[in-house]
Amino acid sequence: MEERLERPRISIVIPAYNEGARIGNALRQVLHCVHERGWHAEILVVNDGSKDRTGSIVEEFAQVHPEVRLLNNDHNRGKGYSVRHGVLNAVGEIVMFTDADLSAPMEEAEWLFSALDQGADIAIGSRWLERNRQTLKQPLYRQFFGRCF
After folding, report:
1. Taking Cα atoms as reference points, which of 82, 92, 146, 81 lies closest to residue 116?
2. pTM, full prediction
3. What's the CA gap between 33 and 82, in Å, rounded?
4. Angle CA(41)–CA(16)–CA(34) in degrees, nearest 5?
5. What is the largest CA-CA distance in the chain?
6. C-alpha span between 106 and 41 (Å, rounded)
7. Which has the closest alpha carbon to 11: 38, 33, 39, 47?
8. How many CA atoms lie within 13 A of 40 on its CB side?
9. What SS3 string covers the chain?
10. What pLDDT tens digit does each residue of the chain (149 aa) get?
11. Fewest Cβ atoms closer than 10 Å to its Cβ: which of 11, 17, 45, 57?
12. Residue 67: Cβ within 10 Å count
C-alpha cells in the first residue's frame, strides 16, 4: 500500500458507472480547478462495476496525477454505496462528492469550503437556493426530475 506524506485538506469523491465517455473530461476539469486554486486535494473515483473503459481511463490519469485514486466496487452496487465507499476511503479533512457529469461546477465548491471555514459542521450545495449564484443553469427537465427525486 502506498504511503502518503501529507494528509490532503480536501477529498473529492466521484462515483462512476459506465462513465467512460465523460470521466476523462471530468478529471481534467477537476484537476484544473484543484491546481488553479491551489487546493491540496485527493480525487477518488469509485468505479461501480462499469462495463466500459471507466476504470482504465482513471488508472491512466492516476499514473500521471498522483492525487487521483481509483477504487473499484466488486460489481454494480449503486450510487449510494459508491459514495459511501469513497467517503470511507477518503483521507482529507474535508470530504465532498460530485457526480461525473459535474452538474455543479467544481469552482462553486469554494462556497462550501467558506461555510465550513466559518464553523459549519456540514455544507450542502443546492441549485435551488439563491439562483443568482448559479453559474450553470440546468435544463428545465433536469430541474423537474431533480425536484421529483
Report:
1. 92
2. 0.82
3. 23
4. 20
5. 46
6. 12
7. 39
8. 9
9. CCCCCCCCCEEEEEEECCCCCCHHHHHHHHHHHHHHHCCCEEEEEEECCCCCCHHHHHHHHHHHCCCEEEEECCCCCCHHHHHHHHHHHCCCCEEEECCCCCCCCHHHHHHHHHHHHCCCCCCCCCCCCCHHHCCCCCCHHHHHHHHHC
10. 455 558 999 999 999 999 999 999 999 999 999 999 999 999 999 999 999 999 999 999 999 999 999 999 999 999 999 999 999 999 999 999 999 999 888 888 998 999 999 999 998 887 666 555 555 566 776 666 555 55
11. 17
12. 20
Question: Can you read off the three cell numbers belonging to residue 138?
Answer: 440546468
CA distance 48 to 25: 18
**Cell representation of residue 59:** 488508472
